[in-house]
Amino acid sequence: MLAKIWNLALLVILDGLRRHALIALLVLAFLLETGGLFFFQFIPRDIGRASADFILSVGWLTGLLFLLFHAIQVVAWDEERRTIHTLLARPISRTQYVFGIYLALALLLLALNSVLAVIGYGILDIIQKSVKPTYFTSLSVGYYALAWLGLYLIELMLLAVILLFSGLVRGGFKVLLLSVSYYFICTGLPVAREAVKGDGGAALAGILKGMAAFFPDFSRFDFKSLVTAPPGRPLADYVGGDCLLAAVYIAVLLTVTAIIYQQRDLQ
């Protein structure tokens, strides 16, 4: 079973590289990240934090573009071009198809984030050496890697949601609209919970809290502020619970997606 999933993942990865989707995003992100070398000159103070935020924001934007305009197309094109019928005509189950597609796109995302993280760290290192220590007090490799891990976990959860929506509706544009709406709900719920916390609306607060089971709080995985912070809590304190939460969420979504694909009429 694992061999079939891996072989399918390789096909999707090679298809993505052949269409130059990853290369085009890397070039765009590289140009934006190197722009940080000029961006920091306009910041009067706290250059380190602003530069780190800029680099990680570019990484997040690049990952989001990959998800919305490549990952969705991969699944949509499989149906529109009847590629899915060719794949499922082979000795591969629909469950293996779901996990194979997810694995391929997750690995492409990992490659994309890894390259951008290395480039971004080099740019931050150059900026740190170009200014006085007062303006860029610290640059932690561990916390920098943690910040990118947080971005990657968010992207993996969104990828699982995209696959779920692709099983529920037909058409890439519909999946795109649902995925964007889902992302905005996830980012808006924490703000809504804070807004009703002091208003005495216990019922509404309970509903909003319960919605976190379906719309996770992505701010839990936002570690940008730690990149330039002095060493503090061990990395394990941040990684353990959040990684487990993301893993459980992804596993549940992929299981539900596999069940949907088992019952779905692909004609």
Name the poorly predicted regions: none
Number of helices: 10
Q: Could you estimate the helical fraction of the residues in percent?
A: over 70%
Overall pLDDT score: 82
According to DSSP, the number of beta strands is 0
| Radius of gyration computed on alpha carbons | 20 Å
Number of domains: 1
| N-C termini distance | 25 Å
**Overall spatial form:** globular
H/E element order:
HHHHHHHHHH
Task: Give the helix/strand class.
Answer: mainly alpha
Fraction of residues in β-strands = under 5%
Describe the largest sheet: none
Provide keyphrases for this structure:
single chain; 267 residues; mainly alpha; 10 helices
Overview of the structural elements:
The protein is built from ten helices and no strands. With 267 residues, it is mainly alpha-helical. The protein is globular. It has one domain (2-263).
